[in-house]
Amino acid sequence: MIWTILKQIRNGEVSMYEDKKYHRNGIHYFQTKKLIIKNPQLAPLHIDGDPAETAAAFEIEIIEKAFKLLIPA
After folding, report:
1. Would 72 be classed as within a structural domain?
2. pTM
């Protein structure tokens, strides 16, 4: 795992670490502040079930403390 992390830092790309803790039922779980999804075949995009314009890549970045979540007691 350490080697994988060092490669990701050097290359700036994330490759999934195959650990049962983070991979269940074909879904990968991980935490990051920024994510780039490459879509070279221009697969269709849907947002909440509505078709949207697709792109060759999508950059997603987390904005910390962008909103407050209130949880009732």
Report:
1. no
2. 0.49
Contacts of 7 by beta carbon, 8 Å cutoff, 6+ apart: 15
User: How far is Cα 53 from Cα 34, in angstroms, rounded to an integer?
Assistant: 21
Full residue range of the structural domain in which residue 52 is found: 23-66
- Gyration radius of the chain's alpha carbons: 16
pLDDT digits (tens, 9 = 90+) for 11-65: 666 555 555 565 566 666 677 889 898 999 999 988 888 999 999 999 999 898 8
Query: Has residue 34 been placed in a domain?
Result: yes
Regarding beta strands 45-47 and 50-52, do their DSSP bridges make them parallel or antiparallel, or are they unpaired?
antiparallel
Number of domains present in the structure of the chain? 1
6: in domain: no
Kindly give, in sequence order, each residue whose CB lies less than 8 Å from that of residue 60, ignoring residues fewer than 6 positions away: 34, 35, 36, 37
